[in-house]
Amino acid sequence: MPIAAKYSHAIFQKLERDVIKLSSKPQAKSVHRFRTGTRRLQILLGELSPKVSSSERKLLKLLSRIRKRAGKVRDLDVQSAALRSLKVPQEPRRKTQLINHLIVLRDEQEKKLRKAVDADTVREIQKRLKRAAERFNPEACHDPLAVAKAMLKPLERAASPLTEPILHEYRILSKRARYAAEFATPSNEANRSIAEMRRIQDALGDWHDWLILTQTAIKYLGEVRESPLAAELHNVTGAKFRHAVAVLSQTRGKPETVSPRAAKSPVPVPVAPSDREQPLRLTS
Q1: d(Cα 214, Cα 231) in Å, to the nearest integer?
Q2: Helix (H) or strand (E) holding 40
Q3: Cα R_g (the chain), whole angstroms
Q4: Which tens digits make up the pLDDT trace of 10-34?
Q5: In 3D, which of 68, 45, 46 has the Cα closest to residue 131?
């Protein structure tokens, strides 16, 4: 299936605008759009294009470094929103303290992000984006749906029982596959594939957001047994985990086995953030 030329060309222009917004004021929306834009460009140049130039490799490396910094801000934005949505009658003061703690952490990370996106860096990104856009040839790209399906192959043969790290890998793969599929020319097949990948990504992303929030709360408030708020967050995370497993079960068409440790552990198993995206190449 051919790539959607108009959509793919627009990625370069949108990302340039997002970089400029990020350098002026890293608000939650601009941070999120920059991160998704850089990931889409990574898929477009690193996975769908038949060859990456040295300038494009430098561009992707530069954007990846900023994206990781922006990810720390984004994580705190998501944690704050999740915590505010939680209705907990116990420890209202501790909830307020934790929200304020997240705000302080967010301010610290925002300062580091703004320092990383200085005027010289923005100009370099703009220059390399322009070069990449001029060089980009959608007709030479790999089939987006074929690339997406290849990315999802590990999900079909993933080991059981499921653990937090395995779900984390599912989350990364489904996200990258969805971004690849979105470059396909619109069709019923593409729409079905994108909707399915989005369903997986949403369930796993929701679980991961609450997991990170729970880990932050335990670090700040103490262990689950020491704080009713931390215990409640852990309970919510457990429910999100079970929902994510159910979604995967429906997608794979078979019941999933949950790791006893994942189901019973009083403290969530830490999941290291992963921006390690290994390029996947298809032969022409």
Answers
A1: 9
A2: helix 28-43
A3: 20
A4: 999 999 999 999 998 889 999 999 9
A5: 45
Helices marked H in 164-259:
164-181, 188-221, 228-252
Tell me if 160 sits within 8 A of 196, measured CB to CB.
no
Q: What would the pLDDT profile of 90-142 be if each residue is shown by its tens digit? A: 778 889 999 999 999 999 999 999 999 999 999 999 999 999 999 999 999 99
- Residue 93 and residue 106: Cα distance in Å, rounded? 20
What is the Cα–Cα distance from 229 to 280, expressed in whole angstroms?
A: 42
Only one residue has tokens 């209202």, namely 92
The four Cα atoms 122, 124, 125, 127 give a dihedral, to 10 degrees, of 120
- DSSP assignment of 119-172 equals HHHHHHHHHHHHHHHHH--GGGS--HHHHHHHHHHHHHT--SSB-HHHHHHHHH
Assigned token pair, 43: 């898929």
Cα torsion 40, 46, 51, 53: sign: positive
**258: DSSP letter:** B
The letter for the amino acid at 158 is: A
Could you give the CA distance from residue 34 to residue 79 in angstroms, rounded to a whole number?
A: 18
